[in-house]
Amino acid sequence: MESARWRSPEVAFWLLAAGCILLFPNRYLILTEIAWLALFALSLDLILGYAGIVSLGHAAFFGFGGYCAGLLALHGIIKEPVLALLVAGLAAMLLGFVTSFLVMRGSDLTRLMVTLGIALLLRELANKFSGLTGGSDGLQGIEMQPILGLFSFDIFGKVGFIYCLVVLFILFLLARRIVNSPFGLSVRAIRNNPLRASAIGIPVNRRLIAIYTLAAFYAGVAGALSTQTTALASLDGFAFERSADLMLVVIIGGTGYLYGGLIGAVIFKLLQELFSTITPQYWQFWIGAVLVVIVLIGRERLHRWVMFVPRLIASKFSRGGAA
To answer: What are the entry keywords (predicted)?
Structure first.
């Protein structure tokens, strides 16, 4: 399939991402945030861009996965980070499967309210059972074990960034394979016209439940990565602002293609850091202004600017190979 083939800008994109390990040795902390935010945005794009499911409460799975990873480490149940990451992702996946039956009912407006309600409900439950979750103070005293028993998290964040980047790349490969499979094509057919998809024999509800459950797994893994790299899990993981920021990331990057969430995460975090440095109290105002500018100038033009460096690197490699 043509869309499943790797192109030179894609290869250059990931080479540039890996090159950040050497290019920005003093920026590992923000690079780590970009990595898990990109995975979080990828999870939302799976349901919004490919399945057409609008969600304002996607932070429910992010926060749930984060708390699962934190509790597993805090109580010594699973000390190995990779195994704890998988367990946290599967727990969020189970939550996504259970709640998917509620989300599938009704129209887009109903789905907006249901997803938002689920996130708010989980936040209040986490706050109520403060003896387990730490309440408004969050989980305290989380100590992470070395990854695979070999790589210890360092204070500079280098190991954490490499860890997040590897997980992001592996799950990106999986998502890429899925969206280009017959299953992914059927999900896109449902997004374009559910009635037509049902008429040709596609099980609409089962496909939507499956992609929603998969997206919950991705969001749970992103939340677990955030907890493991910061040694902190708090109620902010369930907050509406988390879901709103995620929606901005996906809008900035674009929906319906996997790199949209990745590009949006890079742009959003860089703009957030820039505006927070200039005006710490009003950085959200400037983010909104940038969003308006994107609408005016067109996202395609912005993407050409963002992808200029990977394309330049790809051209350099092709010239070198030809020589």
So the answer is: Cell membrane, Membrane, Transmembrane, Transmembrane helix
